[in-house]
Amino acid sequence: MNVQKAYNIWADQYDTNQNKTRDLEGVALREVLHDITFENCLEIGCGTGKNTEWFITKAKSITSIDLSEEMLLKAKAKIVSDKVRFIQTDITKGWDFATQEYDLVGFSLVLEHLENLVDIFKKVAECTHTGSYVYVGELHPFKQYAGTKARFETEEGLQIVTCFNHNISDFTQVAKQFGFEIVGVGEYFDENDKTNIPRILTLLFKKKYY
Known about the structure:
It is built from seven helices and nine strands. By secondary structure, the chain is of the alpha/beta class. The strands form two sheets. The chain has a seven-stranded mixed β-sheet with strand order 3-2-1-4-5-9-8, with helices on both faces. A two-stranded antiparallel ribbon has the order 6-7. The radius of gyration is 16 Å and the shape is globular. 37% of the residues are buried.
């Protein structure tokens, strides 16, 4: 299913249905970024605000982006703060919303829905400065290889969201191309059981140059 349409439908139940990927990515993000200092944050894929609430405790200014109008309505109803600017937009098009250089750009369960990583990292490089961080939290490629995709149930049946497989090297190579070095790689497992396939992959990059 088309990504925007899917998340608009999913919005009504996104915060309440069982979703191990959503929940574990939230845990991972907080752990990875706990000791990182940032004032200006660009949050891409804010959804219903599950991570925005935490970003407010860390940053002075947050620009929170999502493709889905319905997900943003949930976020706006939940979060009232003069620190946050919510914007509905398609990040595969122009980045008019990026009106400053950000200390941190975060992607939460977003890049799996995009085929072209090069264009996205080029735009990230253009709105960050030396020393800026980029956080990526994704459904682990191993899960994707095994057939797992973003999905949810409706009265009409199981809805599967359009996704693309990206290998770990796809992320690291494109980041390096635009001047970002790897400073952290993490894998997160259901129930912290490392005998199973990891559910979440996190990557933390730091900008050296552009």
